[in-house]
Write a structure and sequence with these properties.
It contains 14 helices and 13 strands. The chain is globular, with a radius of gyration of 22 Å. The protein is of the alpha/beta class and about 375 residues long. The protein has an eight-stranded mixed beta sheet with strand order 3-2-1-4-5-6-7-8, sandwiched between helices.
């Protein structure tokens, strides 16, 4: 730990230094701390902003994505000038502007079972700002195996939740709450369901708060408790989550001993890998004269904003009402906005006996991005 704060740091953190629970000793703890942030999008943006401003000395960010226009209403680290460029680069530039006294490390790759342990070692806290279940399982398993507290957050439309998972200091892990992956397409992503832009600011800020409390060792950390926020009702509620003695990871007879397992190795889009086609592959198929059904399973208002020529609109919720319109062997290519609903549609059609099914990886978002 550094032994003192410089004059500029004392001025910058002067309001922290006035708080008895922080003071100079606590500020030096923050300066010596290291946080791994998974994702620099909706949740990662406010969490990283406040961690940097608070003086957390080292922030490492893992995020493979590039900035898109549709990100900017909620991902406040980024702006128009960074569209098409790596999010980690945009995030690092902004965080260094916020606080030049911190160190920002960037990894423009996906957080995977192959790199998770190497990325996480040496950090004091892991903050999960991811938007898919396989990555959440992976951050949980990594944190458990390395005995690092995990600050979890999730958002959906007007609602969000925050929790701290740290079985090594008491309480449950994420798998105690969700033992296995939900069925493909059963839980829509923000790309499919939408999210109010200000909501991630609330939840990401709460994640930053719990991270700072963990580093400083102050207050009551919500271990074994989920804080749920309802933006429409302006209400918070606390849900107690007990440790599951049958949990496959942290239970009495654990089965999971590695970060590589069925949940962490699943596709982040819940897609069946060998049925995915890229936007460029779809363009080639259509240009050659596709003799099948190109199916758009989005909602009418989405289709009206942007669509692929020749696509038949059948919203996912009505799909089963139309399945008798096509022979079971006809080639079908399905797309939605980002890939989640199309994966679910593919499962439904396969269960009804359709045998020649594919879907567009990344949905129409990928199709439009490839056309820029």
């Amino acid at each position: 730990m550094n032994e003192s704060l410089g004059h500029a740091e004392q001025e910058r953190y002067s309001r922290h230094l006035l708080i008895p629970e922080i003071g100079e000793t606590g500020q030096l703890r923050l300066k010596a701390a290291s946080v791994l942030l998974i994702g620099s999008g909706a949740l990662g943006s406010p969490a990283a902003t406040y961690l940097a401003a608070a003086g957390v000395g080292r922030i490492a960010i893992v995020d493979p994505d590039v900035v898109e226009l549709s990100n900017l209403h909620r991902q406040i680290l980024h702006h128009d000038g960074w569209i098409g460029k790596p999010k980690v680069m945009s995030a690092a530039a902004r965080l260094r502007e916020i606080n030049p006294h911190i160190r920002v490390e960037t990894h423009a790759v996906r957080f995977t079972p192959e790199n998770a342990l190497d990325f996480a070692r040496g950090h004091d806290v892991i903050v999960d700002g991811s938007d898919n279940f396989p990555t959440r399982f992976l951050t949980n398993d990594t944190a458990f195996l390395l005995k690092i507290p995990l600050v979890y957050g999730a958002i959906h439309r007007f609602e969000g939740q925050v929790a701290v998972f740290a079985p090594h200091i008491g309480g449950p892990c994420y798998r105690c709450m969700l033992p296995a992956l939900p069925a493909a397409g059963s839980v829509p992503s923000c790309a499919d369901a939408g999210v109010l832009g200000v909501l991630p600011g609330v939840i990401g800020s709460l994640q930053a708060m719990e991270t700072i409390k963990l580093i400083l060792g102050i207050g009551e950390v919500p271990i074994g408790r989920i804080t749920s926020y309802d933006g429409l009702r302006s209400s918070f509620r606390s849900i107690t989550l007990g440790k599951d003695p049958r949990c496959r990871l942290c239970g009495e007879n654990p089965e999971i001993t590695s970060v590589r397992n069925a949940e962490t190795s699943a596709s982040a889009s819940c897609a069946i890998a060998d049925t995915e086609i890229s936007a460029s592959e779809l363009r080639e198929i259509l240009a050659a004269g596709f003799d099948g059904v190109l199916l758009d399973v989005r909602e009418p208002q989405e289709h009206a904003r942007a669509n692929i020529d020749g696509a038949r609109l059948v919203p996912l919720g009505t799909l089963e009402n139309h399945l008798n319109e096509w022979p079971k062997e006809i080639p079908v290519i399905i797309h939605c906005k980002a890939g989640t609903r199309s994966a679910r549609a593919l499962e439904i059609m396969a269960a009804h006996g359709f045998t020649n099914l594919r879907h567009l990886k990344g949905g129409i978002d990928a199709w439009l991005a490839a056309d820029r």
